[in-house]
Amino acid sequence: MSGLSSISNATDGFGMTREAQLLAQALLNHHKTVCRSRAQTLSIESCLIPYGDLFESAGMAHLKNTAGKFLREIAEWCSENGWPPLNALAVNHATRMPGQGYNDAPGCSLDHWREQVGACIQFLDYPDTVS
Questions:
Q1: Mean pLDDT for each 10-residue chunk of the chain (131 residues)?
Q2: Which residues fall within 8 angstroms of residue 33, CB to CB, at 6 or more apart?
């Protein structure tokens, strides 16, 4: 949805803004096509997705500098459902690590990030769609 030009404060029944829903769907698609299809042979590094690529796949490249807000919403959605944090797959292109805001997201810790990525990659019960 490339027509989004500003950050929305409106949420729906899932408690996520439309932007967070679009990013969550992009992460679900990435997990399904990249991570889940080769989970047994896949390295953690090859399953990560840089923020810019994630936002571009969601049609919101212009909002990539606001990643933290939306990724926290996704972490909360995952936490509420008892899932590993899907947002763990999203990283800074240069460092290949999540930003400092990762620690502020529910169920997320930079100290345990690699384990959280591994759990995310191996998890098979994410839904196919956000809605």
A1: 41 74 96 78 85 96 90 96 97 94 96 96 94 75
A2: none
pTM of the model: 0.86
Stretch (H or E) spanning 51: helix 51-57
Alpha carbons 5 and 107: distance in angstroms, whole number: 30
d(CA 124, CA 131): 18
**Contacts for 38 with CB less than 8 Å, ≥ 6 apart:** none
Check residue 40 and give its pLDDT. Answer: 60
Across 33-64, b (16+ Cβ under 10 Å) vs e yields: ebbbeeeeeeebeebbbbbebbbebbbbeebb
Does residue 21 contact residue 27 with C-beta atoms inside 8 Å?
Answer: no
